[in-house]
Design goal:
This protein has 316 residues and is of the alpha+beta class. It is built from 7 helices and 14 strands. Strands 1, 2, 3, 4, 5, 6, 11, 12, 13 and 14 form a 10-stranded mixed sheet that branches.
Length: 316
């Protein structure tokens, strides 16, 4: 295979190889890699840094997923008699970051209930194509799953607004019974003319909520979101000439850009013997940092105050 000369194309190929390798490695190798990246551990929980491209559950074409290696990971951490760990929530295959596992089924159910009743504060970071206006706000638009008619029939989540414009007036629409309430808080952490780094706080947890709200609600799709950048077709994300130039890519290679969506922070309320809330933070994956650098976006200090005065520029 020809070795690409552009460093970004080399990185893109590395990512493609990496995600394909994740499906080919021995479960023990993957469990070892996850055990090295543990973010937090106590007698109830194990918190891992979920890699890009690794599904949480099995399915068609999935050779390896996180649920497959929970028995192996438990044995590595607690000896060969350890019972398998349990999943407490899920992340999309392409999403990276904080993922909570529990030793006991009962604890897993308690954490799942905390997620279900919206007691867990979740913060994601995303790189977007274009910059949302206003720079901070709330997207409160219900979401529904619909079939996309066309060349390739497929299903996508999409918006199901409660209001529409009729002769210049805002009119309430009868709610679709299949639509889910979906609420996302967002704020811009850093921006250029054509891209932004956003902090996202999903209040609800609907499938693909952040991707749908950003792309169809704010018209600012996530970089590398090849599913939700265009409603009508499944095709690589179309990027502006300026963005492609900054990333050092041609449009024909855009399909290799990974989804830039990272579960950066979770706050779990007090649980069991733990009397205080637990703040879990996960650093950005390397490809995400490289993209920020190339796009000229700044990484805020992890412990910055809300007024963003402590922003520091990524080292060039």
């Amino acid at each position: 295979m020809q070795v690409p000369t552009s460093p970004v194309q080399r990185r893109v190929q590395e990512l493609v190889r990496f995600t394909q390798q994740l499906q080919r490695v021995h479960p023990n190798v993957l469990a070892k890699a996850l055990s090295r990246g543990i973010l937090y551990q106590d007698k109830d929980l194990v918190v891992i840094n979920k890699p890009y491209g690794l599904p949480v559950h099995g399915g068609p074409g999935v050779k390896l997923c996180i649920s497959d290696i929970l028995p192996t990971l438990a044995k590595m951490l607690h000896g060969h008699k350890a019972e398998p760990l349990h999943l407490c929530h899920r992340l999309d295959k392409e999403t990276t970051g904080v993922m909570v596992l529990a030793w006991e089924k009962e604890v897993a159910h308690q954490v799942q209930e905390l997620f279900r009743t919206r007691q867990v504060t979740k913060k994601y970071w995303a790189v977007t194509v274009r910059v949302p206006v206003p720079s901070a706000g709330v997207v409160d638009i219900p979401i529904i799953e619909k079939e996309v008619q066309g060349h390739q029939q497929h299903y996508k989540m999409t918006l199901s607004p409660s209001y529409r414009m009729d002769s210049g007036k805002m009119v309430k629409v009868r709610a679709n019974r299949d639509a889910h309430v979906a609420v996302t808080q967002y704020r811009v952490l850093s921006s250029t003319v054509s891209s932004a780094l956003l902090e996202l706080q999903p209040v609800t947890g609907i499938k693909h909520q952040l991707r749908v709200h950003l792309s169809f609600g704010l018209d600012c799709p996530i970089l590398g979101d090849h599913k939700y950048s265009d409603w009508n077709k499944l095709a690589p994300q179309k990027l502006s000439a300026g963005t492609l130039k900054k990333l050092g890519l041609q449009q024909s290679k855009a399909r290799y850009i990974p989804l830039h969506l990272h579960a950066q922070q979770l706050t779990l309320p007090a649980l069991g013997s733990r009397k205080e809330e637990l703040l879990l933070v996960c650093k950005l994956p390397q490809f995400f940092v490289h993209s920020l650098r190339r796009l000229g976006l700044e990484i805020p200090n992890q412990d910055q105050s809300r007024d963003d005065e402590a922003n520091k520029h990524v080292e060039q």
